[in-house]
Amino acid sequence: MNTSIRLIGVPTDIGAGARGASMGPEALRVAGLAAVLEAQGLSVTDLGNLAGPPNPWQPPHDGYRHIDEVRAWNLGLHQAVLAELRAGHLPLVLGGDHSLGLGSISAVATHCRERHKKLRVLWLDAHADFNTAALTPSGNLHGMPVALLCGLGPPELTGIGGHVPAVQPAQIRQIGIRSVDAGEKRLVHEHGLEVFDMRYIDEMGMRHTMEQALAGVDADTHLHVSFDVDFLDPEVAPGVGTTVRGGPTYREAQLCMEMIADTGRLASLDVMELNPALDVRNRTAEVAVDLIESLFGKSTLMRKQPPTRAP
Predict the structure, then answer these.
(1) pTM exceeding the 0.85 threshold for the entire prediction
(2) What is the per-residue pLDDT across 47-79, written as a single tens digit (0 to 9) for each?
(3) Which of 36, 92, 116, 146 has the fewest Cβ atoms surrounding its Cβ within 10 A?
(4) Does the annotation count 230 as an active-site position?
(5) What's the number of CA atoms in the CB half-sphere (13 Å) around residue 42?
(6) Is 13:5 a contact under the CB 8 Å cutoff?
(7) Distance between CA atoms of 148 and 164, rounded to whole angstroms?
(8) What are the chain's domains?
(9) What's the longest Cα–Cα distance across the chain?
(10) What angle do CA 53, 54, 55 make, to 5 degrees?
């Protein structure tokens, strides 16, 4: 795992159906993210926030809300993440709503093609985010980034990374899913997306789920985690705009993060959809920072650390 972290704030709720995720980056900073990572022996540089167009809060146009503004934010994020990867750093994107996964992951995919590395994306979320304009009346683009990354949608968005599709469904593992529209479900099955939903986690346990999701990850794999805070049960994390009951518990989420850390392959990270306007005394940001700390190697278990793998 790269020990040089670059924090990139993206303060926008441009793709969301509720205002407030634009304040997410600052809430994570207030919760002590940089200090927590530095305490793990990591080098952390906060690059501040990207700039982009304001949220015009308009209704959908041709099935999409704010397509030009979403494109602008994601182009900026794509360039910022790709620059940090090329410089040998680990970009940690502080969202912002999950439409930003488009810019972040398209940059990671570009980097993997340049370096001839395999890509594995772990999408931790209550939602599959595999909608299209034909499937959702809201037009909110934070429900569409996985579909867009897989080439489904308008060229202004699918082509942000210059390669369509940016990723293949086979490169993605979705974990914690529990809210999928009927049409979206059909589309997920048609494209062969591998989904470990909450029923699977209930039946098989988080340990087996993560073993399956991480199967095949090796020294030649770039592991990207896109962590939507609504992945967590709202009892644990109330500060999100799209709460769905029945998500992973705090301990299940900790195990998930610890097993990702154990691979030693985490190379880029998104933290999305934190909405301080809906939070309780910044509790959700503090939980998110706690889990990020585990992603970077903090273990709650009294056991010997596995030997460090070569980068």
Answers:
(1) yes
(2) 999 999 999 999 999 999 999 999 999 999 999
(3) 116
(4) yes
(5) 28
(6) no
(7) 9
(8) 4-295 (3.40.800.10)
(9) 56
(10) 120
